[in-house]
Amino acid sequence: MDLENFMANNLLLKARQGFSKKTGRSKKWRELLKFPPVSMCTELRCSIEKDFSSLCDKQPIGRLLFRKFCDTKPDLKRCIEFLDAVPGVPACGMVPSMLRAEYEVTIEEDQREFGLSIFNRFFKEKSEVPLPQIPPTIVKECKWNLKQNSPPQNVFEECAGIVYKYLSETPFEEYQESAYYNRFLQWKWLERRPVTKKTFRQYRVLGKGGFGEVCACQVRATGKIYACKKLEKKRIKKRKGEAMALNEKRILEKLHSRFVLGCLTSKADQFSFLPSTPGLGLQVSLAYTYETKDALCLVLTMMNGGDLKYHIYNLGNPGFEEPRAVFYAAELCCGLEDLQRERIVYRDLKPENILLDDHGHIRISDLGLAMEIPEGEMVRGRVGTVGYMAPEIIKHEKYTFSPDWWGLGCLIYEMIAGRSPFRKYKEKVSREELERRVKNETEEYSERFSEDAKSICSMLLIKDPRKRLGCQSDGVSAVKQHPIFKDINFSRLEANMLDPPFIPDPHAVYCKDVLDIGQFSVVKGVNLDTSDEAFYTEFATGSVTIPWQNEMIESGCFKDLNENEDEDLVTLGKHKMYSSLLRPKRHFLQRLFRRGGCLNIGPSEKEEPTEH
């Protein structure tokens, strides 16, 4: 390893280690995250949408502060404890398959007993702190269902819906008048500040994207490491890639998946008042967008484990043992399910686009070719990578999500065989020949494939998309129910409760040497002018809400800034909205004359505490 590459890797590794030790923060981090006076949040208070689901559930800091508010009232605290224990509320717009509470992730054979324990805990006749009034008929039906041998997953659904609705009414209104909500507005003010290149420290180049380099960067205030994908302005304009860049950003912001790189958060829109935990639901993706003089920047989760192509071909003999391949395939199913739930077809599944995080979980990356399909419609487009494109794409036929199930078949095959289905390892073959094989030939299976592995690959690699696994009415559920996944508990997998088969070395940098990453040529003959400004403004919108709030929590900044504030919040909560935070500190002469009785003190000053 040459000196330049050694130094670049060493600096990056030190920065990564500094985040967990809090030494990666700037010495001025408290100044960078200094709360504004509540008076500066007046406009924000008026403009912010008063939506309970968004403010108290989806937004991580909002969820934590609402929990703190509820902890001050025994009846509300009881409601939160109940919602922590049971599955969520599909009736309130949440998606059932994304809801993961204590009851739902309990091992199936223990669910009945655990469900009864929840029932006895919260529905005792003489409970000191009862739940909101739930009709006796619903309670009776719930108890009857729990006594069956196989109680349904949604056994507590109606009860949870009533409790959720109760919290969204009067308690939510009271929360908005509390000091906890004032603190939330202060965090929102910080979140909405402008983002520039000075927000970050820059580290080594990690690779190349379609419009520019990808490098490592670190947020100065928190020490969190990200990957910064730079889109050169002149290169975008020369290739007329404005719509493509905006499409990628829009899709990245829209998605809610732990298995797709560039999504807001892990199950961010699920109904769960469970507190956030590092490593459990903090897999943030698109976190910031900003611009420099020469580039537009997407700041994404740093995936330190490298891509699957590197692991398949560079660490020992090509390919994985089947259990490892099955685990990754199961997580890919979840990622594709999340994409399809948002009517998005990915169209570029291949090993180099599947990345590993620090813990060994996979993430689908690079949504540049992804496309949203309107309900009831089909699309046509010859896009993707040769050797992984589905037959219907090669034939320029219409499709919906079938190319992604074909891509999953290619990936499972390659992970096990150590080669792609239609090209041998390092074989040189023309594009035309490779496309002919995809359309006409049947893949071959070696002894490395079990019967289940051979079965799922052959069902996913059916040429006719109408007959392909995953493309019928039962969709992803048919794929998940394949025998190869018999040992995978998908509820626990989606809740991040299953251990990956491989954990990346935290002291390794899984990417090419700095000097092996080719540089982009200079773009000539393109001039940037004021007509481009509207595009830049639409792209560079700063912090992405949920990822930014998760970063504050994960980095410990939320706890550190609030650890001395809890007592003040309780005191402030007894007063009106603009309490001590509005009151300026008195100068020395004012305090001196006050002691001497030379200044009259109004009733409001006697009743309200001064700022500390």
Description:
This protein has 27 helices and ten strands. By secondary structure, it is of the alpha+beta class. It has a six-stranded antiparallel beta sheet with strand order 1-2-3-5-4-10. Residues 89-100, 263-284, 571-586 and 588-612 have low confidence and may be disordered.
Biggest β-sheet description: 6 strands, antiparallel
What Rg do the Cα atoms give?
A: 27 Å
| Main structural class | alpha+beta
Segments where pLDDT lies below 50 for 5+ residues?
A: 89-100, 263-284, 571-586, 588-612
Mean pLDDT: 82
Sum up the overall morphology in one term: globular
Strand content: 5-15%
Q: Topology, pairings included?
A:
Blueprint lengths: L2 H19 L7 H4 L9 H6 L4 H7 L1 H12 L2 H12 L25 H12 L13 H11 L10 H11 L2 H7 L2 H13 L8 E9 L4 E7 L5 E8 H7 L2 H13 L33 E4 L3 E7 L6 H7 L7 H20 L2 E2 L8 E3 L5 E3 L6 E2 L18 H4 L7 H16 L13 H10 L10 H10 L14 H6 L9 H5 L38 H7 L2 E2 L1 H10 L2 H6 L3 H7 L15 H8 L7 H5 L5
Helix pairs in contact: 4-5, 5-11, 6-9, 15-17, 17-19
Q: What would the keywords be for this entry?
A:
single chain; alpha+beta; 6-stranded antiparallel sheet; 27 helices; 42% helix; disordered C terminus
